[in-house]
Amino acid sequence: MNMKHCIGCRDFPCLEVDKKAYIIPDINLDPEKIKIFMISEAPPNDSKDYFYTKGNPFYMETTIQAFHDAGIKVSSIEDIIERDVYITTAVKCGKTGYSLAADTVKNCSFILEKELSYFSGLQCYLLMGDVAIKSFNYIAQRQTGAKAIPAGSTYKIRKNKFDFKNKRVFPSYVMTGENYLIEKSKRAMIADDIKNAFQLIK
Q1: Paired strand residues for 164
Q2: Which of 45, 59, 50, 22 is nearest to 96 (CA)?
Q3: How would residue 179 be classed by pLDDT, with cut points 50, 70 and 90?
Q4: DSSP letters along 35-79, please?
Q5: Domain range holding 153?
Q6: What is the 3-state secondary structure (H, E, C) of 137-149?
Q7: In the Cβ-directed half-sphere of 158, how many Cα atoms lie within 13 Å?
Q8: Cβ contact 177:186 at 8 Å
Q9: CATH of the domain at 81
Q10: pLDDT digits (tens, 9 = 90+) for 49-85
Q11: I want to staple 67 with a disulfide (CB 3.0 to 4.6 A). Which of 10, 19, 72, 172 is the partner?
């Protein structure tokens, strides 16, 4: 299955996003084998930096480093998928500023919700950053009437145990971009969250 052929945005209602940077994961995989669903923030404005782009995309450089920090040796998106991990973004268009409007995150959460529906073997979710957390909460509220992750600073709440439909949910931090490389404290927490997710699926 290839998500690019299964999901998408039809009318592009959001105003403050870079629609030229609209990207859906383009890779063939068996969704039933995926155990960890990893949600990042938004695609890069340059498609050559996206997770699934051939070569050495920048998003994969920092993602691979995050896995290495967690003690998990991978060298490509294919290696990560072989480890039963799928990576996507909460918002499917690139950013035009530092942040994303709540309406944008909510609009795209319907696409993410459909994307999630194809993965029947999931055991946990890694929510990489505030946008991923907000998007996942929109989905949780529609499906259960309650947020999966409560309000609060991630560093304060991340040690608590959260579940969504009997699957573990880890609120974490964005693992893509320049900030990841310099924020050592967040890198350590990201590594810890990835490590705990892998321990859960063993």
Answers
A1: 167
A2: 45
A3: confident
A4: -EEEEES---SSGGGSTTSSS--HHHHHHHHHHHHTT----SHHH
A5: 3-201
A6: HHHHHHHHCCCCC
A7: 24
A8: no
A9: 3.40.470.10
A10: 999 999 889 999 999 999 999 999 999 999 999 999 9
A11: 72
Tokens of 90: 């909460």
Token readout for 160 is 């608590």
Q: Which amino acid is at 191?
A: A
User: At 135, is the secondary structure helix, strand, or coil?
Assistant: helix
Residue identified by tokens 């995989």 is 29
Q: How many CB atoms lie within 10 A of CB 69?
A: 17
Strand order in the sheet with 167-172: 85-89, 36-40, 124-128, 167-172, 162-164
| Region 95-115 average pLDDT | 95
How many structural domains are present in the chain?
Answer: 1
- Read out DSSP for 79-124? HHHHTTEEEEESSSSEESSSS--HHHHHHHHHHHHHHHTT-TT--E
- What is the sign of the dihedral through the CA atoms of 183, 187, 193 and 194? positive
Q: Is residue 59 within 8 Å of 176, Cβ to Cβ? A: yes
Tell me if the pTM is above 0.85. yes
